[in-house]
Design brief:
Elements (H helix, E strand, L loop, with lengths): L3 E8 L15 H5 L7 H17 L4 E4 L7 H6 L6 H11 L1 H8 L10 E4 L9 E5 L6 H4 L2 H11 L6 E3 L17 E4 L8 E6 L17 H11 L4 E5 L2 H6 L8 E4 L2 E5 L6 H12 L6 E5 L6 H7 L5 E3 L7 E6 H5 L1 H12 L4 E7 L2 H4 L9 E7 H5 L9 H14 L13 H16 L8 H4 L1
Parallel strand pairs: 1-2, 4-5, 7-8, 10-11, 13-14
Antiparallel strand pairs: 1-15, 3-4, 6-7, 9-10, 12-13
Helix pairs in contact: 2-16, 4-5, 16-17
Bound molecules: N~2~-(3-carboxypropanoyl)-L-arginine.
The site of N~2~-(3-carboxypropanoyl)-L-arginine has 23 residues, from loops.
């Protein structure tokens, strides 16, 4: 058996973090639309969460923010002249596109890619498919730069295969690891890969909110990764209608344990049976199901109990659930969390982290991280400059304090000063994280 760890790579929250209401079906995003944000508080909250995980003993990496405002995207729409002029005209003539071009959405790294660990991949490499995120315009602008970031973090092609995103069409709508749960006896052993989809490619979709993942996209990712142990499950329509825009809003899993809400899957019994069958001979799955009676779906969504990180900490037998403080603030969610720990089940500890700035856009602790199972040799082959240490945490905090604004209203996104400000910040970051030359579009221009 190869020993392996589950590392996390979190999206570093970018300087344009804002509440522009860009994601229909994501209730927090709609509810907080138009509010002023605090990008500096947001990035510091994200950095503190990363440090917390590193201090708990798990390898922690950082994925750099993308260049925003995305001037090259606006130029493809026909806006021309100086960069400042492009931004100004876009806000005047096409404000929805301008807002999309300013979003800091790459922070939600659970949507960066789907990852298959080497233990599950036919060719013995770790596979990554950046998510095309075609359902929302602001997110569809992410995958190429995400691919660059993954190449920078996982540079050795003998160990890592970073694929292109799936073709960016609605039939292959893909939201990455937010709809993927891997269960296993031990991270280094072959696992079961649960892939949750919301609609079929050719299905006429009539839901009020979009279903962001197609079955065919999930199948294609598993196929190109040569992934073993794939189990496909349909996300429940009720969950999507209630505001579950990704499966990770109502479900999280680690090792043998799947922790989920009873409305997560269209066919809960069938999903459990399929997981059991796929796990046969590998491990005995443990299902921790929370009923709607104990926790109505609306509370699950507003408190993000399931958008938590379920982690095995070094030297501990039972798992730790890392929840947002909103879970503690919701009486029902808090009661469920307390009961879990009090029972003799697989979850032995609950910790809370403050990621309120991200939460107000529907991004909890689990949204902010991409899980990557790595064996020792693979871990050693990652870019060490992107790994969070006490020192890097301090340097990035100082960098954020220098460059980030502490208040940003959606209207401020039209400020041309933001272009130079963010570029200066990203230029400084490129050196710190050793991202290579020409990492950002403005550096290649
Ligand atoms: O895609 N919010 C993100 C939140 C992603 C959360 N990720 C996971 N559940 N894994 C989204 O809906 C809102 C941006 C705005 O409205 O300004 C946004 O994109």
């Amino acid at each position: 058996m190869t020993s392996a760890v589950e590392a996390n790579a979190d999206g570093l929250i970018g300087p344009t973090h804002s509440y522009a209401g860009l994601s229909p079906g994501n209730l927090a995003s709609s509810l907080n639309a138009g509010e002023a944000s605090n990008p500096r508080a947001a990035v510091l909250q994200g950095l503190d969460k990363m440090k917390r995980l590193a201090d708990l003993g798990l390898p922690q990496f950082v994925l750099p923010p993308h260049e925003r405002p995305n001037i090259p995207f606006l130029r493809t729409l026909g806006f021309s002249g100086t960069d400042a002029r492009v931004l100004e005209r876009a806000w005047k003539d096409a404000p929805a596109f301008a807002a999309a071009a300013c979003s800091a959405s790459p922070m939600w790294a659970a949507n960066a890619a789907t990852v298959t660990p080497s233990a599950d991949a036919a060719d013995g490499r770790v596979h990554f498919t950046p998510a095309n995120l075609v359902t929302n315009l602001h997110r569809a602008l992410e995958h190429q730069q995400t691919q660059r970031a993954l190449d920078a973090l996982f540079p050795d092609p003998a160990r890592f295969a970073v694929h292109d995103a799936l073709p960016a069409v609605a039939h292959l709508a893909d939201e990455g690891a937010a709809n993927h749960v891997r269960l296993c006896a031990d991270h280094g052993q072959p696992g079961v890969n649960l892939l949750v989809w919301g609609r079929e490619a050719y299905e006429p979709w009539t839901g009020a909110y979009p279903a962001r993942q197609t079955r065919e996209a999930s199948e294609a990712v598993a196929r190109r990764h040569g992934a073993s142990g794939a189990v496909l499950a349909r996300q429940s329509k009720a969950a999507i209608a209630g505001g579950t825009f990704h499966n990770d809003v109502v479900c999280v899993g680690a090792l043998e344990t799947l922790f989920f809400h009873d409305l997560a899957f269209e066919d809960t019994k069938g999903t459990k049976a399929a997981i059991r069958a796929a796990a046969e001979g590998l491990f005995e799955p443990m299902f921790v199901e929370v009923t709607s009676a104990d926790l109505p779906l609306a509370d699950a969504i507003s408190s993000y109990l399931f958008n938590s990180m379920l982690v095995q900490l070094p030297g501990e037998d039972r798992l730790t659930l890392i929840c947002p403080t909103e879970t503690r603030d919701n009486a029902r969610s808090h009661a469920v969390a307390e009961r879990l720990v009090g029972s003799n089940g697989p979850i032995g500890r609950v910790e809370y982290v403050d990621v309120r700035q991200s939460m107000r856009n529907g991004g909890g602790p689990a949204c902010l991280r991409l899980r990557v199972v790595l064996n020792e040799a693979e871990l050693a082959a990652t870019n060490p400059a992107m790994r969070i240490s006490e020192e890097l945490h301090a340097r990035l905090s100082e960098w954020a304090n220098r460059w980030y604004r502490d208040t940003l209203a959606p209207a401020d996104l039209a400020d041309p000063a933001l272009i130079d400000e963010t570029r200066s910040a990203l230029d400084a970051l490129t050196g710190m994280l050793k991202l290579g030359s020409g990492f950002y579009p403005f550096q290649r221009a």
